[in-house]
Design a protein that fits this description.
mainly beta, 5-stranded mixed beta sheet, globular, 449 residues
């Protein structure tokens, strides 16, 4: 089992506080897994059972919480006028939402132990320059931190910001308009979602839009551009992932035209795989020596298990499901919004409708396919996990806890009482939920001192 724990997780975590830090979207390497965490399987927010703290968070945002040491960081967008419209559920509407008035884009820091607000920094303010989808917000992108710097991306609204841990603005870099939207008609704008990642001294940013898409790296200390690589892509929403490959690293990106690998030192494209799907949302993950990518927008719905280290066009030949660089693949069954997760020897994918599928990670053999919940709830947040438990948050505000392993077994169903669109964070004994209006730390009572 140990060989399938994401090795990138161990490479990126600091030597201390390994079970506490969750530095970016879905934690280290976007794995979604904390191998030493122990949050509970059941809780009751209304009664306060196994809830360490709950605090209000201003604004309207799907940005996920991140954690470093004794701080939890959250990005948000605070509207000056009426409360924005959020339309949850299983639907395929392409319409954009219009938000009148001004928005204040902010980064907040809370105490991990108590939920107390430490600081609240406004970084931009004004009328939104782009529209959003009715299921999206103007602050979808999750911040990232290395323990000294905190970077946050607000797309067209001022660009990329870097703050110190105490909330001091260190630098800002504009990246231009980010009018991410429908491939068929770019006038339908849906909102940016790809999150920044930190690697060594770089901030890496994927900006896929209707034209002039790019992948770029910026100096973490100054914000100075280091390299910028054009991408033959249309709009996409996934976050790039750093993957070890022999004596090098690769940046792996999901995209609406191809999955691609890049050299993080230069930005050179190393390899690509197609076809993918015209609306690409999920983030690549790495586990057991393989990169897993899931696509769910019809008609193409593949899952790929890719060996890093390739060169050139790695696309499968017609009717083939494997190759020297692709360990296995399926062309139907890929998932749309939630990012996959690997725990031990198993890979799990969660679809928008709550269908959870378990595969043998090494071979692609399907072990089960089961519906979570009553079949009516929608799922936008990505799964997170400990070695024993999967945590699956529905848009309706229910968190289902499912046992890891080759058999489907529900351990708990926990209503939170608010919408849940953001992917949770795990930090030691805490599961941290960003709901529609609150930040909630689920955990058994702290031991008395």
């Amino acid at each position: 089992m140990k060989r399938f724990l994401p090795s990138l997780l161990l490479l990126l975590l600091p030597a201390t506080s390994q079970a506490q830090n969750w530095p970016s979207f879905r934690g280290p390497g976007a794995s979604g897994l904390d191998p030493m965490a122990k949050p509970p399987a059941t809780w009751n927010v209304k009664e306060g059972k196994n809830v360490r703290w709950s605090v209000p968070v201003p604004g309207f945002a799907h940005s996920s919480p991140i954690v470093w040491g004794d701080r939890v960081f959250v990005a948000t967008a605070v509207h000056s006028e009426k409360e924005p419209t959020l339309r949850t559920g299983l639907y395929g509407d392409v319409d954009s939402a219009t938000d009148p008035g001004q928005i204040s884009w902010r980064l907040l820091a809370f105490e991990r132990a108590t939920g107390k607000l430490v600081w609240d920094r406004e970084l931009a303010k004004g009328a939104p320059k782009v529209l959003r989808h009715f299921k999206a917000t103007h602050a979808n992108s999750t911040p990232a931190t290395d323990g000294q710097h905190v970077v946050v991306f607000f797309g067209s609204e001022g660009g990329l910001y870097c703050l110190s841990q105490d909330g001091k603005l260190e630098w800002r870099t504009e990246v231009g308009g980010v009018d991410t939207g429908w491939f068929y008609d770019p006038s339908y704008q849906w909102g940016h979602a790809s999150s920044p990642v930190i690697w060594q001294n770089q901030v890496i940013l994927q900006v896929d839009r209707p034209k002039d898409s790019f992948l770029a790296a910026y100096d973490l200390a100054t914000g100075k551009p280091l390299w910028r690589t054009p991408r033959a892509e249309i709009s996409s929403w996934g976050t790039p992932t750093l993957v070890p490959s022999g004596d090098r690293f690769e940046i792996v990106t999901n995209g609406s035209r191809a999955i691609r690998g890049y050299d993080p030192k230069t930005g050179e494209e190393l390899w690509h795989i197609s076809p993918t799907t015209e609306v690409s949302v999920s983030t690549p993950i790495f586990a057991g020596g393989l990169v897993f990518v899931s696509e769910g927008y019809r008609p193409l719905q593949p899952v790929y298990a890719i060996r890093p280290g390739g060169r050139g066009d790695l696309s499968l030949k017609p009717d083939a499901s494997t190759s020297a660089q692709i360990a296995w693949s399926v062309q139907k069954g890929g998932t749309y919004l939630p990012t996959p997760i690997a725990v031990g020897p198993h890979l799990y994918t969660l679809n928008n409708n709550g269908t959870l599928t378990c595969y043998e990670a090494a071979t692609g053999k399907e072990l089960y396919r089961q519906r979570v919940g009553d079949g009516h709830a929608a799922f936008s947040a990505s799964p997170v996990a400990t070695p024993e438990r999967l945590y699956l948050a529905s848009e309706d505000g229910d968190v289902f806890v499912v046992a890891t392993g080759p058999e489907f077994r529900v351990l708990g169903s926990n209503p939170v009482g608010e919408t849940l669109m953001a992917t949770p964070a795990i930090s030691g004994d805490l599961l941290i939920l960003r709901t529609g209006k609150s930040l909630v730390a689920v955990g058994e009572p702290a031991p008395a001192h």
